[in-house]
Amino acid sequence: MDSKNIIAKRVARELKDGDVINLGIGIPNLVPRYTDKEVFFQSDNGVLGIDGINGEDKYACNAGGHQVELTDYGCFFDSVMAFDMIGGGHIDVTVLGALQVDEKGNLANWMIPGKLVPGMGGAMDLVCGAKKVIVAMEHTSKGNIKIVKECTLPLTAKKCVNLIITELCVLEVIKEGLLLKEIREGVTIGDVKEKTLADLIIPDVIPRFG
Known about the structure:
There is one protein chain. The chain is α/β, with parallel strands linked by helices. The protein has helices spanning 3-12, 79-87, 123-129, 189-194; strands at residues 20-23, 40-43, 47-53, 68-76, 93-96, 100-102, 107-108, 132-136, 140-141, 144-145, 147-148, 163-165, 169-174, 177-184, 200-201, 208-209. The strands form three sheets. Strands 1, 2, 3, 4, 5, 8, 12, 13, 14, 15 and 16 form an eleven-stranded mixed sheet that branches. It has a three-stranded mixed sheet with strand order 7-6-11, with no helix packed on it. The protein has a two-stranded antiparallel ribbon with strand order 9-10. It is globular and about 45 Å long.
């Protein structure tokens, strides 16, 4: 299993029956294939009841432009209602990627200026409106360390991240900093520390995930 699917599979363990979940582009879109819970995936362009990407209907798309499959209860509405759900506190979990996260839970996921990629989308609203914010990302990108002491890129929001899940570990943002909550099978604490610039709080016993 590649790193992206390892991350998505571990994210799925955080979901609970009845959750309404917004998925960002990239790795978060892989999460539906790994959950057996009765959850409701939402997209901020106005879709509820997404069952996965790679759907056949070219008119059924999520906010990232992917064609999606819908559950039997899937429905569409305008983006005003979608953002009413977000701003009104009706999103239980948002899962999104990041360029940087720091040890205070600050998030930078703006796209780099000048690149042919989407803009911020609804990220600012989501990380402030969702009850739980999970960053799902590869631990490094092309050698660049993404978990840092302090973000150097423009912030999406301050102190908004609750959990960081990478192919190496699970980090929980607590008052004191970043708690090494879990580590993947075959990965050492040294591996995690080598690829992390932030200070880590390391407990005596660390559960493993596969």
